[in-house]
Structure formats: C-alpha cells, structure tokens
Amino acid sequence: MFTRHLLPRISDELQHSPAVALLGPRQAGKTTLALEAARSIPSIYLDLESERDRAKLAQPELYLSDHLDKLVILDEVHRTPHLFPILRGLIDQARRSGRRAGQYLLLGSAALDLLQQSGETLAGRIAYLELGPLNLLEIGAAQLDTLWLRGGFPESFMASGDARSLRWRQNFIRSYLERDIPQFGPRIAADTLRRFWTMLAHHQSGLLNVAHLARNIGVDAKTAQSYINLLCALLLVRRLPPWHTNLNKRLVKSPKVYVRDSGLVHALLDIESKETLLSHMVLGASWEGFVIENLLSCAPDNVQAYFYRTSGGAEVDLLLVWPGGELWAIEIKRSLNPKVERGFHAACDDLSPQRKLVVYPGTESFPMGHDIVAMPLAALCQELASGIAVTP
C-alpha cells in the first residue's frame, strides 16, 4: 500500500552486488519490500523461521546450487549464521561462471554486527541497506500527526483506531521481549528489560547516563550498557553522538539516546491518543525524536548525524555533516511560531554552518533572520531525499 523510498536502491544494488542485506526491525516491511523488488525477476523466497523452509536447507549447498540462476531471498537470515560461508562459496562459484550480481537478498532483524557473529563475512560481495518504519515522504504530509502518534510500523499506522494501534504496539513490544531478544544474547528477564526500555522512553532525547540507568533497575553499569548495545543493534534505539571538533570549547561528550519509533515511545508510556500526548511531559522530546528519525531516514547514507552542545549552553539539536564537510545546523521546535534561542545562535557562531534551519509543524517555509530558515518537516525530508547539499 506504500511506495518505500528504498525500493529503487534495492533494485540498483541487486544489479551490481552478488548479495544485498536488508536490515530493519521486525514488522517494518522488509519481506513485502523484498518481494516487490523481486517481482520482475526469477526468484525464490525462504522464511528461515519456517520449519518447512529450514528443512529445504538441511543440505544448503546442494539446495542453493540448484538455484544459482535465481535470486534467492532468505528471510530472518540471522537465525542461520552457518549459511554465510556457504553463500560465499556459491557467490564465488557463480562469479567464475559469469554471474556477478543479484544472487541473494538477505533479510535480517538485527544490525550488521549481529549478522557478523557468524564469524564469516561476505566482504566485497555484499551491500547493506537499512529499512526503518514508514517515514513522512512515504505516507504523505497530510498524515503527519497520525504517523507521529502511532509510529511508522505499517500495521500500527494502518490500524482501525488509536486503541487498536496501541494494542498492536504493546503486543509488538511483548513479542520482542519474550521471543526475539533472547535469540541474540544471554537470557534477559523480560520485565527487567521492559523497565529499562520504558526508562529510555521517559528519557527520550536526553543525554545517556548508563550508571544512572543501571542504578534505577538494580543492575551494574556493564549490564546496562549491554542492554543499550542490544537495543541499538536491533535498530530499536539510537545513540546520537556529540560533534567533536578542535574548537576551544568544553563540549558535552555523552551521546543522546532515542527510542527510534515514536509509536513505541508512546506505547511504552501508555499514550493512546493525541490529546493525551499533547498534555504529556514527553511531548517535546517525542517530537524531536520523530523529526530526527524522519530526517535521517530520508538523508543519503553518507550524511553523518550528530548533536552539538557545550557547557556554556550553545546547542544544536541535529547537526548534519555532508561528505564534502558542509554542515547543516537544525533546531527542532514544536510550535507554529518557532523562536530561536540564544544557544542555537551561539552554536552557529562556533560552527559556521552553511545551512541554519528550524523544523516546525507548519506547512510553509519562511526566513527568520540571521540566515535562519523555518521549514516544515516534509519539505526538509524532500530536500534531503534529493541527496544534494545545496548552499543558498
């Protein structure tokens, strides 16, 4: 029902790389997108959570050798890390016979470092792409509030009502805690990790203080750090790093932490409706995280994201660094009449960014003085999706 912005990228990578890994959290739409990308080419699909499909791979080299002329889609590939060395051999075999691209499309619910736990990489043979939940360009600016409240997981976004959407997200969280997360590491008590995840939602957009989080749930700092690492690897939490330069400033060095999908933030905090959200203390932080995730999902892969903060109060919510070194300083405001504070001006004096932008929930762009431009979220997403840094 949605045209995913990543579809052309997948098709392009399949024409140039033997294997493509599509990573993203469960229920983000990876399988639907993969089948769409393979619609016009000979392909077979194997769900590695299905006993029937796993049985086909009892002797994987023999089975896959019979399908070297097709694109093989392997869903939930992180469940079978022993396949990686076999895939490498088959890719090299196909190369020798003249087929150099479009052999395997691997779908996984974990980030790159978890896929590499197999001990066998496909270096030089694989391209990695990340699919997150739906973004604003994929569903249209008219549904911004619904996307913000319910988040971008398709089933949650398309639910028949807010209550049904919240119930889906609560079931999603429970499934992750009880079924999916134990696949990736030592057994973690579901109620402990839920409390930890909920604390992160309360702390949305705050500086990461692992020791404080650890004390609040009664574990040591090393254990709390492992929880953070796991949720980040599962693409459920983002650590936004601070920008470090040689400026003669005392810079904040801790990352900021975000639960990546706004709908999960609201589900963890039991926020069902927009009215409840508008009166909740997480309102501003939720909007900030929502804006950041949408912007980063639309930005080119080679654009790096940071925040900037000094002990003197200079601050930029989001600093985008383009490959040529161009800086975009972005302030995020939840107001139809946004005001820029002194901290943003001070940060811009420190950084001298080429673009100074304020993202707000309105529908028109307008200048604010001091070379600052206020822009709607959809407009900046569209500009980033073009992939070109344009200095005014």
Summed up, the domain count is 2
Query: Unreliable runs, pLDDT <50, ≥5 residues?
Result: none
CATH superfamily of the largest domain: Winged helix-like DNA-binding domain superfamily/Winged helix DNA-binding domain
User: How many distinct beta strands?
Assistant: 13
Largest beta sheet: what is the strand line-up? Answer: 8-9-10-11-13-12
Strand content: 15-25%
Distance between the termini: 36 Å
Strand-helix topology:
Layout: H1 7-14, E1 19-23, H2 30-37, E2 43-47, H3 51-56, H4 60-65, E3 71-75, H5 83-96, E4 104-108, H6 112-115, E5 126-130, H7 136-139, H8 144-150, H9 154-157, H10 162-180, H11 190-202, H12 210-217, H13 221-233, E6 237-240, E7 256-259, H14 262-268, H15 274-278, H16 283-298, E8 304-309, E9 315-321, E10 327-332, H17 342-351, E11 355-360, E12 366-369, E13 372-376, H18 377-385
